[in-house]
Amino acid sequence: MRNPAELTDAFRAKGWKVTPQRQLLFRLLHDTDRHPTADALFVEASGQMPGISLRTVYQTLNDLVAMDELHVVNIGGSTRFDPNTAAHQHAVCSACGTIRDVYLSGVDGLGVAEVDDFHPQRTRITVTGVCGRCADLTPTRRPTGSHHKENQQ
Amino acid sequence: MRNPAELTDAFRAKGWKVTPQRQLLFRLLHDTDRHPTADALFVEASGQMPGISLRTVYQTLNDLVAMDELHVVNIGGSTRFDPNTAAHQHAVCSACGTIRDVYLSGVDGLGVAEVDDFHPQRTRITVTGVCGRCADLTPTRRPTGSHHKENQQ
DNA sequence: CGCCTAATCTGCACGAGTTGCGAACTCGCA
DNA sequence: TGCGAGTTCGCAACTCGTGCAGATTAGGCG
């Protein structure tokens, strides 16, 4: 997504107001490389602005998604929001739930345009696996059980 | 997923019982190339077995997922279940919500194994776009508004 | 063939995540 | 500075999925 100043302009250009709540969320989202849930963002925002409503967080996230400044990530559980709108893919750790942005090679080689009777717009690629940290916790065996709770990132 | 007879054996082999409810769901799932939600399956099952519980549908679906006979598909909204366990990808129509199985070329060319400090297990690829039917309904313009409700498949 | 028990089914209540609504508030143009 | 459309907030409501407990049943055994 664009930086807070640009988003401010973009909102005003649409006749939308730029409130302190929105500005805070612009900043929080712009400064992260994670993929927070609405609730995680709400907790973070509450630290800087006690009294902000979870409802407002949802509202603003939905606005940003509608403006295509934010992408949604569905990997089960709550919806996650991705401020990185550049072409990239996701590596999801099945042990700890962390999502990492990755840039795979060979994406252009996919025969997406050749799908019969379909007009592709966007291709999403998610690699599920085990991140280095979780692999270290369970040497030589696949980490079936979740060693730390399913959360984070 | 395997056929109903094979699933029956697999369930018995694990000491699990094969009830009429499960057999019905085995059949419904085996005979579809769609990606039903639990509720859609419940409606379909209710037609043939009035009184079957939605709870039972969820239960059985979860069992099948645990046995890796069924894969879950998260595209927002309710969880969808995919009986096709062969390697394939999904084409999702953003207008009508239909999911179609597709077999893209070039998947092996993705640099999945090269992701730093990560042990990949499975790669999921979803192509979002507009299916032929929806494209026909909105000639020459991209179908922003949903012309028929977001549902199906 | 009927018994017995663990497995299963069902209905309901509950919990998490998300949205609808309306009253109070406020950004920002005039 | 004043006004009004746009926002925020809090709560109720809604959806999806699961926990629970009592009733039911598959299927091994005698």
Key terms:
homodimer, 153 residues, alpha+beta, Arc Repressor Mutant, subunit A, Dna Ligase, domain 1, three-stranded mixed sheet, two-stranded antiparallel ribbon, 5 strands, 33% helix, 19% strand, disordered C terminus, DNA-binding
Reconstruct the topology from this structure:
2 copies of one chain form a homodimer.
Chain A: H1 4-13, H2 20-30, H3 38-48, H4 54-66, E1 71-73, E2 80-82, E3 89-93, E4 99-102, E5 118-131, H5 132-137
Parallel strand pairs in A: 3-5
Antiparallel strand pairs in A: 1-2, 3-4
Helix pairs in contact in A: 2-3, 3-4
Chain A binds a DNA duplex (30 and 30 nucleotides) through residues 12, 15-19, 21-22, 37-39, 51-56, 58-59, 62, 77-79.
CATH superfamily of the largest domain in chain A: Winged helix-like DNA-binding domain superfamily/Winged helix DNA-binding domain
Describe the largest sheet of chain A. Answer: 3 strands, mixed
| CATH T-level topology of the largest domain in chain A | Arc Repressor Mutant, subunit A
| Reported CATH architecture of the largest domain in chain A | Orthogonal Bundle
**Percent of residues in helices of chain A:** 25-40%
The CATH class of the largest domain in chain A, by name, is Mainly Alpha
The structure class of chain A reads alpha+beta
Distance between the termini of chain A: 17 Å
Domain module count of chain A:
2
The number of strands of chain A is 5
How much strand content do the residues of chain A show? 15-25%
| Integer-rounded radius of gyration of chain A | 18 Å
Q: Give the largest interface pair and sizes.
A: A-B, 37 and 37 residues
Please work out how many helical segments of chain A DSSP would assign. Answer: 5
* pLDDT < 50 runs, ≥5 residues of chain A: 141-152
Q: What do the pLDDT scores of chain A average to?
A: 91
Task: List SSEs of chain A in N-to-C order.
Answer: HHHHEEEEEH
